[in-house]
Write a structure and sequence with these properties.
With 229 residues, the chain is an alpha/beta fold. It has helices spanning 22-33, 40-50, 53-64, 70-80, 101-111, 125-132, 173-197, 211-221, and strands at residues 11-16, 35-39, 88-92, 115-122, 135-137, 144-146, 202-206. A five-stranded parallel sheet has the order 2-3-1-4-7, sandwiched between helices. It has a two-stranded antiparallel sheet with strand order 5-6. Strand 5 (135-137) and strand 6 form a beta hairpin. The two termini are 23 Å apart. Bound molecules: adenosine-5'-diphosphate (ADP).
Length: 229
């Protein structure tokens, strides 16, 4: 039986393996339903582009495909998550380890907000790897594309600033499989934790469907109006 919220949850955490399409889904939920995205991966890459003290220490972890240590994520959170009252937050990429689970609970308490839905975008590892090889990113502004799913207007060129698009360093083939293993190892206990501990707020959508169907299912799971099919 699927539980559907009668009131859309204000704050949401989205989970999905690298290549699941969770970030595209998060962007669309942000654009059409007003969620403010809190994306640790994007915040970390921005710190690397700025080359600030945090960026200098996280760069090596990002390029290797390994997770950034919890202590640095804690610093990132302290720096970036100050005023949740500003909107409906959608967490994409956090929490990523069991060590970060109490960190989220701590931020909920301190800043006075509550996660109303944990949404899991389920995709098999094989499908996820196939998708990741087509991803591109703008090295200047961080805009993301996919050569099949979300191509730029001009091949390999950023629509926003004309920069030549590149593969993310962590989308290199040798790193892609490692990131899938890391997801299986670290995310499985987190998903079990919320599935068991907060079943009324935990939902799964089938991420292997065409994107429009994934989006419509996600909207329904969140109690939001789904686009007409
Ligand atoms: P993906 O979901 O495709 O892995 P993200 O942009 O969410 O992409 O994350 C990219 C990288 O950023 C991860 O491989 C990891 O190194 C780092 N990262 C992001 N969020 C966290 C986090 N909460 N804890 C540790 N590392 C993180």
């Amino acid at each position: 039986m699927s539980h559907r919220p009668t009131v859309p949850p204000t704050h949401v955490v989205i989970f999905g393996r690298p290549g699941s399409g969770k970030s595209t889904l998060a962007e669309r939920l942000g654009a059409e339903h007003g969620y403010v995205l809190f994306r640790t991966g994007e915040l970390l890459r921005a710190a690397v582009r700025r080359d600030d003290f945090l960026g200098q220490r996280v760069e090596v972890h990002l390029a290797s495909g390994n997770l950034v240590p919890d202590q640095l994520i804690f610093e990132l959170m302290e720096q970036s998550l100050k005023a949740p009252a500003t909107g409906k937050l959608l967490f994409d990429g956090f929490p990523r380890t069991m060590g970060q689970v109490p960190l989220l609970a701590d931020f909920e308490r301190r800043l006075g907000f509550a996660i109303g839905c944990y949404l899991d975008v389920a995709v098999t590892p094989g499908e996820a790897i196939a998708r990741m090889t087509g991803r591109r990113v703008c090295p200047t502004c961080g805009a993301t594309y996919h050569i099949v799913g979300k191509p730029p207007k001009v091949a390999e060129t950023c629509d926003l600033d004309g920069s030549h698009l590149v593969n993310r360093t962590d989308d290199k083939p040798e790193v892609v499989a490692l990131r899938q293993q890391i997801f299986d190892e670290y995310a499985t206990p987190i998903l079990d934790h919320y599935r068991r501990g907060a079943p009324e707020t935990f939902r799964t959508v089938d991420g292997e469907q065409p994107f429009e169907a994934v989006y419509a299912d996600a909207c329904r799971a969140l109690g939001l109006e789904a686009p007409a099919s």
